[in-house]
Amino acid sequence: MRQHHDMGGEKAGPVEKTEHDYAPWEKRVDALMVLLSDRERSLIKVDELRRNIEAIGPDAYHKMTYYERWITSITSTLLQRGALTSDELARKLADIERRETAGLL
Amino acid sequence: MSGHTHHDHHDHDHDHPHPTQPDVDGPLTYHQRLEIAVRELMIEKGVLTADEVRRTVEAMDARSPAGGARVVARAWTDPAYKQTLMTDPSRALNQVGVEVGLYKLVVVENTDAVHNLVVCTLCSCYPRAILGLPPDWYKSRAYRSRAVREPRTVMAEFGLEIPDDVAVRVHDSTADMRYLVLPKRPKGTEGWSETRLAGIVTRDTMIGVAEARLP
């Protein structure tokens, strides 16, 4: 069965010739992928990036922007690989929220 | 990366975290927080450094379609270089200081008989090493869906009409194999220098949604 990311040949509207300059956080997501996938670190392969993007449910997939899918997939892969634990991640996200509220970000 | 020398303008060490410059006013989105979280955790674990992230972003910013334009202009003027580009693209790119990376690059040549168009229907694979990051439309549902079914209509939406007697070949990229179109050199550019020629090679000509034209 065809999955939601597999859209080649489907009907769709006109191509809107949009582009934008990537935001700094998007460039950092890209940089994380480049670094984590290099030969030295090898913590994620490009196929894992793709597989974990494809694993995002159809609704979320279509709502997310491009680099939102990437950081979601990178995070999933690091969790699957054991390079991060969900506890560490939850603590860090809570810490980031606190720093943001305190104006420290 | 090719011979990039990093000059550190700071005269202090980097044991302390620098505050992150906010990207936008207003609260961070969930995914922006996730980026910060993953980056900081990887730094804390010693997997990477903040400096490496910064330098990688800088290296990416330095890549642009100008790299591809240089390669195309050289192929137009130097038959031996063109031969290398068609048969061993990685080597041809190395010769102009571009490292292709972990994937295979395939160069497809537009001629009077064949026009090539590049898409990635499954995601957004793109020859980033030589063209920089892809435009949003390349990653859009409309382009990914339709480029393989009705390429002539899609190209017409970009203002490119391909005559019926010219075959259209659409190349669907994968993570491991990415395509660069070698556009046709326009008539009237005889005797032009490589630099002048590179000036008419746009990103879109190397994706195949445009043809190189006289200015």
Description of the structure:
The complex is a heterodimer of chains A (105) and B (215). Chain A is mainly α. Helices cover 57% and strands 0% of the residues of chain A. The longest helix of chain A is centred in the C-terminal third of the chain and has 16 residues, at 66-81. Chain B has two domains: 30-62, no CATH class; 65-207, Nitrile hydratase alpha /Thiocyanate hydrolase gamma (Nitrile Hydratase, Chain A, Alpha-Beta Complex). Helix content of chain B is 39%, strand content 11%. Chain B has helices spanning 30-44, 50-62, 65-77, 79-87, 89-95, 128-131, 141-146, 151-157, 194-198, 203-207, and strands at 104-109, 114-119, 167-172, 177-182. Chain B starts with 29 loop residues before the first helix and ends in an 8-residue tail after the last helix. Classes of the chains: A mainly alpha (105), B alpha/beta (215). The interface between A and B is large, with 59 and 58 residues.
Task: Tally the beta strands of chain B.
Answer: 4
What is the name of the CATH superfamily of the largest domain in chain B?
Answer: Nitrile hydratase alpha /Thiocyanate hydrolase gamma
Number of E strands of chain A: 0
What average pLDDT do the residues of chain A reach?
Answer: 93
Are there runs of chain B of 5+ residues with pLDDT below 50, and where?
Answer: 1-19
Structural class of chain A: mainly alpha
Task: Write a compact overview of the structure shown.
The complex is a heterodimer of chains A (105) and B (215). Chain A has 105 residues and is mainly alpha-helical. Chain A contains five helices and no strands.
Secondary structure: elements and pairs:
The complex is a heterodimer of chains A (105) and B (215).
Chain A: H1 24-36, H2 46-54, H3 58-63, H4 66-81, H5 86-101
Chain B: H1 30-44, H2 50-62, H3 65-77, H4 79-87, H5 89-95, E1 104-109, E2 114-119, H6 128-131, H7 141-146, H8 151-157, E3 167-172, E4 177-182, H9 194-198, H10 203-207
